[in-house]
Amino acid sequence: MGSSGSGHFSDYPGTKAKVVTGDGTGMAGGASGVDKCKQAFHVLLDDVGNSDFYSQFNNVPAVGAQLAIIFDTKRVFAVDMNGVKVGALPTSFNYLVACLEDGVTYIGLVSSSAASPVPTVAADFVAQEA
Questions:
Q1: Residues in the chain with pLDDT < 50?
Q2: d(CA 125, CA 130)
Q3: What is the pTM assigned to this prediction?
């Protein structure tokens, strides 16, 4: 059995579909009907111990603290409400860059955090449309 698809990146979920010109109406490409940009997600942040927040306060944000998502031209980060980086999102969340560029913002709450033995922060985020 062979695989099906056009051989283009648009075959993969998460890529933006293109409008097809012609007599009918429809979409081409990887449109799955689910907009990942609008989905809530839970994430365990990376590099919390090396973050600006941990460096400044020698601690992690408390459970219930509000966070936002930014892209600093290199990585996607969770930041506190003052814009201080708390930790990086794993690369599996890099699709958020396109969402942010489309005007979607994310607000989250710290769901768990610990300063020792290793600084860790987990958070839940939801999309806020502009």
A1: 1-3, 7, 9-12, 14-15, 17-18, 27
A2: 16
A3: 0.74
CA 31 to chain centre: 19
Beta bridge pairs of residue 76: 71
- List the structure tokens of 38: 């609008």
Listed residue (41, 76, 78, 38) closest to 61, CA to CA = 78
Q: Which residue has the tokens 């994430």?
A: 43
CA 41 distance to own-chain centroid? 8
User: How would you class 25 by CB atoms within 10 Å of its CB: exposed for 0-12, middle for 13-18, buried for 19 or more?
Assistant: exposed
Q: Read out DSSP for 66-88?
A: EEEEEE-SS-EEEEETTS-EEEE
Question: Taking a C-beta distance cutoff of 8 angstroms, is the pair 121, 87 a contact?
Answer: yes
Q: And the tokens for 22?
A: 């012609």
Q: What is the CA radius of gyration of the chain?
A: 18
